[in-house]
Amino acid sequence: MHPIDDGHVGRRPRIGLCSVTFRQLAAEQVIAAAAGAGLESIEWGADIHVPAGDPARAEIVAQRTADAGLAVASYGSYWRAEEDISPVLDSAAALGADRIRIWAGRIGSAEASEAERSAITEAIADACASARERGITLALEYHSGTIADTPGAVRRLLDDVPALRTYWQPTVGASDDAALHEYDQLRDAVAAVHVFSWWPAAERLRLAERASLWAALFQTATEPRDALLEFVPHDDPALLAGEAATLRGWVTSR
Question: Phi and psi at residue 226, in whole multiples of 5°?
Fold first, then answer.
């Protein structure tokens, strides 16, 4: 393992929200919901609220986020390694985001050929170099259907591209113990955690219904800069304040 230090390690994670949680809301409504729930930051998504290649929109969202007393946690892009990274970088820079979430291709690590894996890795390395020129770090989405779908696959990418970091979220269907073991294998490289409770598969639960996972993780997890709420049941903004309070209790109780 190679430690990656962004100056955060040892402090508690910042508590925030992924804007993708409320795709149905305007950016201004997302900001109001996050501020009303006492959150500290927002990861703005490229899917709806801050489209890649529209820096003017990103500047507006950045200003309104700051006006509400919130930080921009990161830019949640859907860049997949075969695309031009420039529009993503332009929007992230205008947003004031120093980290961009990216996706490691469109094929799982077990199915990818060495040629496919090499092409994805090379594209990510080039993107990291371009991002670094703007003071931005790239971090992997830890997700099935990419070559960042297991701790071992992520480690291989991190070894090949040392500037890279990773997000983490529990693998769908994994037991609490299995998910915690996955996190432990990546913890020194985790920049942010997407926090949600799905069980036994993609059924959305309240956070407290997987307290055995999340409370245990945040007892020891000081590595991530951000703990970002994602996917509340029924996409219901009325649940956000309660979910934020649950997460805050875990993060601040140690």
Answer: -130, 135
